[in-house]
């Protein structure tokens, strides 16, 4: 998404990493590299509504992309 909105090299996130076993495992082993230093689980009760909202947005984007791909395929572009 960053590359769709910004022109390289002016990116908000010029480097992205996929963490084996996820952020939770990384945080437990390398807390000093993490900012902020506190870890809150994704399903924490204080953030349930925010998680629901982000998931709804993600589904909307996925549906839009599928429709766009189907339209492009149907038109041969």
UniProtKB/TrEMBL annotation:
Its EC number is 3.1.3.48. GO terms for biological process: cell division; G2/M transition of mitotic cell cycle; positive regulation of G2/M transition of mitotic cell cycle; positive regulation of G2/MI transition of meiotic cell cycle. The lineage of its organism: Eukaryota, Metazoa, Chordata, Craniata, Vertebrata. Keywords: Cell cycle, Cell division, Hydrolase, Mitosis, Protein phosphatase. Gene3D superfamilies: Rhodanese-like domain. Belongs to the MPI phosphatase family. PANTHER family: M-PHASE INDUCER PHOSPHATASE DUAL SPECIFICITY PHOSPHATASE CDC25, PROTEIN-TYROSINE-PHOSPHATASE. It is an enzyme of class 3 (hydrolase). The keyword Metal-binding does not apply. GO terms for molecular function: protein tyrosine phosphatase activity. PROSITE patterns: RHODANESE_3. This is protein-tyrosine-phosphatase. InterPro entries: MPI_Phosphatase (IPR000751), Rhodanese-like_dom (IPR001763), Rhodanese-like_dom_sf (IPR036873). GO terms for cellular component: cytoplasm; nucleus. Coiled coil: none annotated. Residues 10-35 form the Rhodanese domain.
